[in-house]
Amino acid sequence: MANHSAVMKFFLMEVSATRKLQIIHGFLFLLIYLVTLMGNLLIFVLITLDQYLHTPMYFFLKNLSLFDACLISITVPKCIMNTLCHENTMSFSGCILQVLLVIHFAGSELFILTAMSYDRYVAICRPLHYNIIMNRRVCMGMTVTAWLLGSIFGVLYSSGTFSLSLCGSRNLPQFFCDVPSLLKVSCSKTHITIDISEAIGVMYALFCLVPIGFSYICIFNTVLRIPSSQRWSKTFSTCTPHLIVVTTFIVTGTMAYLKPVPDSPYLVDFLVSVFYSVLPPSLNPIIYSLRNKEIKESLRKFLWKVSHYRFYGEKQ
């Protein structure tokens, strides 16, 4: 820990060596960030205000939108600011905070996705007992568990990573601070603490993935027995968006953490980082707003209320 005070700043990967391309990338990231943030916050607000959407499925979706909005806000704004201001530095405390919060919200999101798959399993495979099983206390308990587990893993990974000796290069091959990049610049020969943390993280991922897989096996098995094609369509319309979000989140996260960290980052490494940190939060509002009739109807009513209020407000 003695050498940590000396390492006050890290140097992050630059998006491009050309100033014009940096500005273009900066504004492109800004556009993606604003659209993603507004999309997720809009879903959060619609579900909160619309009484019709106060069901377990939309309760979990509201929390998923909140996690996505927070997750993308941890990494992308700093990248935008560095790119537009022609800087690539990150303070030591800022780096600790980024690792802590990224792991926290990623871990919490994985559990919420697991809860959403269980909700769909109960709704389709045990519909008569749905209201009893998925009651308010169960939904709140799952959400609190998601926040708690995310906090535990955030503290575990950040403390394990920054307990290592960081006496090597301060150039991180990443546009934000993450565990693999920090391990790359560490000069500690043994990573016992972080190895234990990663082992626990793998077990946690399996703990979430097994129920998700089991839920969808049961769902598809039940759906195939339904004779009505209309019921098939309704079932898949609620399950497909969740399955896409789960697959994207897991695949991009696995690629980012299992891919060897290069000494000098290439374009493909930058794209993998973008897919991992930007793509999953961006997909959530797009998938659920375009495919979900209830969300679109709620948005229509919300916009009508806003326009109605403005019209009569101006007349008064």
TrEMBL record:
Gene3D superfamilies: Rhodopsin 7-helix transmembrane proteins (1.20.1070.10)
SUPFAM superfamilies associated with the record: Family A G protein-coupled receptor-like
Organism classification: Eukaryota, Metazoa, Chordata, Craniata, Vertebrata
Name of the protein: Olfactory receptor
GO CC term (a single one): plasma membrane
Top-level lineage group: Eukaryota
GO molecular function list: G protein-coupled receptor activity; olfactory receptor activity
Presence of the UniProt keyword 4Fe-4S in the record: no
Listed InterPro entries: GPCR_Rhodpsn, GPCR_Rhodpsn_7TM, Olfact_rcpt, Olfactory_GPCR
Reported function: Putative odorant or sperm cell receptor.
Family: Belongs to the G-protein coupled receptor 1 family.
Keywords carried by this UniProt record: Cell membrane, G-protein coupled receptor, Membrane, Olfaction, Receptor, Sensory transduction, Transducer, Transmembrane, Transmembrane helix
Entry membrane topology: Multi-pass membrane protein
Domain named G-protein coupled receptors family 1 profile: residues: 39-288
PANTHER family assigned: OLFACTORY RECEPTOR (PTHR26452)
Main location: membrane
Regions crossing the membrane: 23-47, 96-118, 138-157, 202-224, 236-258, 270-290
Localization, UniProt: Cell membrane
Pfam family, one: 7tm_4
Entry keyword Cell membrane: yes
